[in-house]
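Following up on my earlier message about glycyl-adenosine-5'-phosphate. Here are the inputs again, as you asked, copied directly from the submission form:
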Amino acid sequence: MAQEDIFKKVVSHCKEYGFVFPSSEIYDGLGAVYDYGQNGVELKNNIKQYWWQSMVLLHDNIVGIDSCIFMHPTIWKASGHVDAFNDPLIDNRDSKKRYRADVLIEDQIAKYDEKIEKEVAKARKRFGDAFDEAQYRSTSPKVKEDQEKRDALHERYSKAMNAMDLDELRQIILDEEIVCPISGTRNWTEVRQFNLMFKTEVGSTADGASTIYLRPETAQGIFVNYLNVQKTGRMKIPFGIAQIGKAFRNEIVARQFIFRMREFEQMEMQFFIKPGTELDWFRKWKETRMAWHQNLGFGAENYRFHDHEKLAHYANAAADIEFKMPFGFKEVEGIHSRTNFDLSQHAKFSGKKIEYFDPEINESYTPYVIETSIGVDRMFLSVMCHSYCEETLEDGQSRVVLRLPAALAPVKLAVFPLTKKDGLPEKAHAIIDDLKFHFNCKYEEKDQIGKRYRRQDAIGTPFCVTVDNQTLEDDTVTLRYRDTMEQKRIPISEIRNIVEDQVTITSLLKRLK
Ligand code: GAP
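Thanks, got it. Here's what our run produced:
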């Protein structure tokens, strides 16, 4: 199945099975804002638990906080967001549609890439086993020409972005003859800067209300609490502060479902270290975070690092962890070596001394920071895309199964009475009453068993148990495994051990190296 078709199916599956709904749907929705449904919230909470526990439980030098969305407006001046958290925008005069200039150009680069890959794929088919891809790429005149055009465009674009040269961005759009996808014309306005922060006001206007921002990242809540946590927690460097929370960005080009949202959630950890040790810690955190992702068992080939060539002015190293989504490798997490930029800026703007006295060297310094920053919603999307599976069974029937890692599945165990009589529902309820303290169980009695299995497969439930008349005689049930569909008879007393062994976040954490 084509990758875009898979993506469309994932999106509609999310809606149909209570994972993700468009926000305010009965009012026709609100762009780039989504709600999580009854199954989605469980999966999301499990992802957050997996991250939180891997940080705070597994590291005795990492603690968590929960800071507010509203913060003093000067924080965003100090962090650089007021002046520099901008996207370059351009309008098409005919369609009246607004675009991100950088996205239009990146799409054009992607078109060259696609053209090149198509040529290579055609040649691969033509030459079969004898195909030497590297040689073909370096000798085919068509591929070479497109590659040169692509590289030249990429270089010109990178330069313009680095310098935020808005005229040059517009000129690239004109030179590349990029047209508006709606009107099909090249009637473009100038390129303008657009700040991504949402503004609101605190206090009534009569009192002199002041403008504040909805935080565009959770990280600043950690930086401004650095002294509080370090002092009250008697933390010694190196140490980390972790936080999960909402962030808001007025994204202009919002697309690809929950990949780019206006309200989303981040899981960020700032690791405070001694200056000079940052590149070692950067490498270590890159490895640690990649191991966390790969521990889910989605296959190492579906992840890659993208090391940044263009660095923000305060960073001295940065890399993304990218996951292979149906629409290509995309950033899910960023790992950034942020030097002492943020703490120094907050010291400057607040007038407070923000330092660490290091007893080992008898000196004070402003700590350096390694940041790991992952979007919960992007992580959720990667899990859904990888787990969605359509299978044809031996008997010719088909099923949709979400092969979620058991520890992330919304429901761990579904319990079915074979029929709605003879005391079977009561027995099934008794099993759930016993197990519900340990993991999430669901009772289902509607439809025949086969249909009930399919419904649970579709939401990724790893185990189902059927209670029948034999259960009333010998306290055994049929246990059915989601992935293999294997069924076996087991005593009720064994259910907990079998299920618990695989569905807890602890089981996932124990596999982390
Ligand atoms: N504190 C650093 C920071 O915020 P970022 O690269 O802008 O860095 C980190 O964001 C992560 O947050 C991204 O890797 C992505 O997973 C997530 N993210 C950023 N913008 C997002 C959006 N509009 N919608 C969903 N997730 C987003």
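One observation from looking it over: Residues 217, 219, 249, 251, 260-261, 264, 266, 268, 331-334, 371, 373-375, 377-378 surround glycyl-adenosine-5'-phosphate (CB under 6 Å). Hope that helps, and feel free to reply on this thread.
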